[in-house]
Write a structure and sequence with these properties.
This protein is an alpha/beta fold. Helices cover 41% and strands 11% of the residues. A 6-stranded mixed beta sheet has the order 7-6-5-1-4-8, with helices on both faces. It has a two-stranded antiparallel sheet with strand order 2-3. Strand 6, helix 6 and strand 7 form a beta-alpha-beta unit.
Length: 258
């Protein structure tokens, strides 16, 4: 199975936050996945238009047209998580997703979409958003069936409810978590070397002392939740003014991904 023009669109997970990289600041699951694809076609070219903080409407307005202009034969478009944790109207999200996916379906590209892990397992404050997450996941399942897309079911993976799959901000995957995302995409796409056990849980970790757990949660609230909440009140996004890290199709060079 070979692809020659791989384009990723979306938000921070696809940009790669939580997975440090010396050249692009962050690597991420899509970069790791591109490296795997290049093993089958060394001439593969790859673009990543994803930018942190982007909601589905912004992907529609800012990323869809540039992505289509690159004439990809493979597209990764896991979309909607920022709409879940924000205040987007989910009916509008559905409409925007349908527009994006309908336009991608008009191409000859294979399109990868996903469900999202249940972040309420790792971020207790996110529990009140769980119904929105479940609604988004159901949308993506429906659209995958309607448009015959490849669905990566991250929500069903026990490994992705383990804190070790997540970075210290608890919202973005750790390097290990990004590797599991890439494993999941490889398996869903049917790559020959894909790991069918990518979703299995890790061996149990020692339970932290209750006091240590409280201190850890308090530190997280100060370092990550409070700044995020302030940005939300101000209507500011970490993606404001940022450009994509790989705006054009370029070769997947091995040293870039290690």
């Amino acid at each position: 199975m070979q692809y020659s023009r791989f384009v990723a669109i979306g938000d921070s997970q696809t940009e790669g936050l939580g997975d440090p990289h010396p050249e692009y600041e962050f690597r991420g699951w899509a970069d790791r996945f591109a490296h795997r694809l290049a093993a089958y076609n060394p001439d593969l070219r790859y673009a990543n238009l994803a930018i942190r903080g982007k909601r589905t409407r912004q992907v529609l307005e800012e990323q869809l047209e540039p992505a289509l202009a690159l004439e990809p034969d493979l597209v990764a478009a896991p979309l909607g998580m920022n709409d879940v944790i924000g205040r987007s109207d989910l009916d509008e999200v559905r409409s925007d997703l349908d527009t994006i996916y309908r336009n991608l379906a008009k191409t000859d590209a294979t399109v990868i979409v996903s469900t999202f892990p249940n972040v309420s397992r790792t971020i207790p404050l996110a529990a009140r958003k769980e119904h929105r997450l479940l609604a988004l996941n159901e949308m993506n399942r429906e659209f995958a069936e309607i448009y015959d897309f490849v669905l990566v079911d991250l929500h069903a993976a026990p490994v992705l409810t383990d804190p070790r799959s997540w970075s210290s901000d608890r919202l973005h995957a750790s390097p290990f978590g990004h590797e599991r995302f890439a494993d999941a995409a490889a398996h869903a796409l049917g790559l020959p070397d894909a790991d069918p056990d990518w979703s299995k849980p890790l061996p149990p970790a020692p339970e932290p002392h209750p006091v240590a757990a409280v201190i850890r949660d308090a530190r997280w609230a100060v370092e990550f939740f409070t700044p995020w909440f302030i940005r939300k009140l101000r209507g500011v996004s970490l993606g404001d003014g940022r450009e994509p890290k790989r705006p054009t199709l370029t070769p997947v060079v091995e040293h870039e991904l290690h």
